[in-house]
Amino acid sequence: MAEKVSKPERARMEAAEWFARLNSRTITTQAILDFREWRNDPRNAAAYASLDTLWRAANGLSRDPHIQDAVRAAMERQAKGRKLNLPDRRTTSFGVIALIGLLTFGALGFLSLGTSYATPVGEQRLVRLEDGSRIRLDTDTRLKVRFTKGERHIELGRGRALFEVAHDTSRPFVVSAGKTDVRALGTRFDVRRDDQEVDVTLIDGSVRVGGEVDGSATWTLKPGEQLTLTENHAAAQARKVDISAATSWTSGRLVFHSVPLASALAEVNRYSRRKIVLEDAELAATPVTGVFDSGDTEAFVAAVADLYDLTPVRRQDGAIRLTTNPKRAPS
Predict the structure, then answer these.
(1) pTM, whole model, 2 decimals?
(2) Residue 188 in contact with residue 165, Cβ under 8 Å?
(3) Residue ranges, the chain, pLDDT below 70
């Protein structure tokens, strides 16, 4: 008979499995939505937060040869098909830490020199560099990695990515997005490239941002700051932002705090091939506040339509046009 598992321990086991799933190479929008539903339980949310904290603490041990041997052994066991069985197996804290080590130190594979990576619309991807750094690619993102003896270089062609940089003073970590360069040694930051605009958001550590337009124009960001640069870097100033909102996309959520409706709509459109079109241009600048699941176009449309008394009209090509409700039109 299977030994009964307590609710807190079950939460820890499920948190470990979710950690593995969310840190896989590719994750679907549905998986993110399922994770969000599971995390609605406060006990589950606390278990996952604790696991994430343990992972960050363990990250610095990645070069320890004894830990690397343990990881290789764990990977061999995994290859033989041994998996967690929630109803019948008890996972201890040691088991959870072992899983963290497996994920952190080798289960995700490595990016090779000069390799390109991409995500389609509606998906995210996590990749691990040969130096221990990690990159999470957001929806519809392309980037290329090149390592040399003197530099770790990432070229962001389009989209957005969050970088967790392993410390290495001998090889700066440089992310190029068009004419903008972001340099770091050991830190976490987010870079987004849309057309001629680049957003750099620093989570922790320190980065120096500059570019090819004017070599004398550089900015050193502090944690919690964001910098937006246009093609000519004109009048750019760092500003404080809500980091949890700015990086909410990594957990499958889109958080808007008084964001212009047109901007919120554009962000939602990034995660779906069914585009939303706002017919009433006068509403474009109207501020929107709310939390939505990335990829859940219907929920966003329903909320906006209800809030502004709009009517969703579905076109043959799959797009959704938000039109002004006839009741609101002047007589």
Answers:
(1) 0.64
(2) yes
(3) 1-5, 23-26, 55-113, 211-216, 232-235, 326-331
CATH no. of 115-241: 2.60.120.1440
Report residue 49 as tokens: 């937060």
Asked if 34 contacts 40 with a C-beta cutoff of 8 angstroms, the reply is no
Of the candidates 53, 52, 14, 18, the residue with the CA atom closest to the CA atom of residue 35: 18
CA angle 249, 274, 270 (to 5 degrees): 30
* CA distance linking residue 102 with residue 72, whole number of Å: 8
pLDDT for the residue numbered 145: 95
Q: Kindly state the helix (H) or strand (E) to which residue 275 belongs, with its residue range.
A: none
The confidence score (pLDDT) of residue 326 equals 65
For the domain 252-328, what is the CATH code?
3.55.50.30
Best CA proximity match to 304, nearest among 285, 329, 322: 322
Query: pLDDT at position 302, please?
Result: 92
What residue ranges do the domains of the chain occupy?
A: 7-105, 115-241, 252-328
Instruction: State the Cα–Cα distance between residues 287 and 226, nearest whole angstrom.
Output: 20
- CA 189 vs. chain centroid, Å, equals 11
Residue 12 pLDDT: 83
Number of H helices, E strands in the chain: 8, 19
The greatest distance separating any two alpha carbons of the chain, rounded to the nearest whole angstrom, comes to 78
Sign of the CA dihedral running 278, 295, 176, 58: positive
Note the helical H segments in 186-290: 243-246, 261-269
